[in-house]
Amino acid sequence: MKTTITKAAVAVAMTLGAGSAHAEEGITLVLNWVPTADHMPYFYAKSQGWYAEAGIDLNIEVGRGSSAAAQKVGVGMAPFGIADMSTLMLAKGQGADVKAVMAVYANSPQGFYWLKSSGINSPEDFPGHSIGNPPADASRVLWPLFAETVKIDPDTVKFVNIAPQAKMASLKSGAIDITSDFYNEHDVKLQEFGDDLGFVAWRDIGLNSYGNSLFVNSAYETANPEVVSAFVAVTQRAFAACVASADPCIDAIMADVSGLSRENQNDQWTRIKELMTDPTTTTEGLGFFDPARVASDYQLVSTYLELAEPFEPETLFSNAGLDPSVKMPE
Question: Domain named SsuA/THI5-like: which ranges (predicted)?
């Protein structure tokens, strides 16, 4: 099934952008990590001039984790960011002024990886071992929830700070026993470690909360509603275009980001499309949130983690800027 991309969506983005962004307003998007396949729609839309047509001069900033992106956008240091939704909930509960405006991962991409040769066979064997990931990694922020789910003491593991790019090398060298990573990188690990690779997906143990989402600083949205609507419309269009044909989008990110493997980016995008697909994105529209699922995620986070200031879950997200005629293929 071919993804629907309407001329109306393009016209809305261009009209709204021209109405408020004037002569290309400078806009920063803070990524959750270093740029890879899940970010290529932003690079593609930028390379095609779609953001510029909507009056937006887009700057894509390399990220340091969902928590770091939520903090930066939450205090108004940048208008847009990408972050895991559960991390956004924690950030909002701590006073971050944020709202999600498009779901990227309708399914949780979170997973833990280890080598079976280390003696680990399942999460029940994690106690006494080390987990390596960046301090702002969403899986570290949400570790207490994972530990509760698999019934282990959260304090029985040691966290080691490593850069996102060092995860596989650190696992291979034995510097760490376990690492967290997104499912879209799964094929790289299979190629590297083969049958020795151990893996658990969070969604397979009942933790299938919304993953990465595009979000905005709420005060910025209030002051610049047309810019936000234009940005969301262009971004939804870009994701739909990349779902329909990945090659031009891979071209765009590889032209802008060094050190990427085309084969790896293509493999990643195949996994990402799985993560983007659920009954809501195939029927309501690509990027749409299901309010009931957001409420369920909120209940889970507020039960197992500490929200300094509780809030109504419906204030965390909006589908208003999304075109319902643009859908994920079933």
Answer: 37-244
User: In total, how many domains does the chain have?
Assistant: 2
Residue 234 φ then ψ, to 5°: -65, -40
Structure token digits, residue 300:
């889970």
The distance of Cα 252 from the centroid of its chain, to the nearest Å, equals 19
Residue keyed to tokens 């989008």? 249
Among 156, 171, 155, 64, smallest CA distance to 111 is for: 171
Share of the chain above pLDDT 90, in %: 79
pLDDT by residue (tens digit) across 240-257? 999 999 999 999 999 999
**Cβ neighbours for 45, distance < 8 A, ≥ 6 positions apart:** 51, 58, 234, 235, 237, 238, 241
Which of 158, 188, 205 terminates a domain? The answer is: 205
Give a yes or no: residue 177 inside a domain: yes
Supply the pLDDT for residue 185.
Answer: 85
* Nearest to 268, CA basis, from 210, 191, 205: 191
Which domain covers residue 234, as residue numbers? 7-107+210-315
Query: What are the two backbone dihedrals, phi and then psi, of residue 269, each rounded to the nearest 5 degrees?
Result: -65, -35
Question: Are 52 and 24 within 8 A, CB to CB?
Answer: yes
In this prediction the pTM is 0.83
Contact 187, 111 (CB under 8 A): no
**Sequence letter at residue 179:** T
Quick one: which of 111, 112, 116 has its CA closest to 193? 116
pLDDT tens readout for residues 61-90: 999 889 999 999 999 999 999 999 999 999
Which residues, 6+ apart, have CB-to-CB distance to 87 below 8 Å? 66, 67, 70, 138, 141, 142
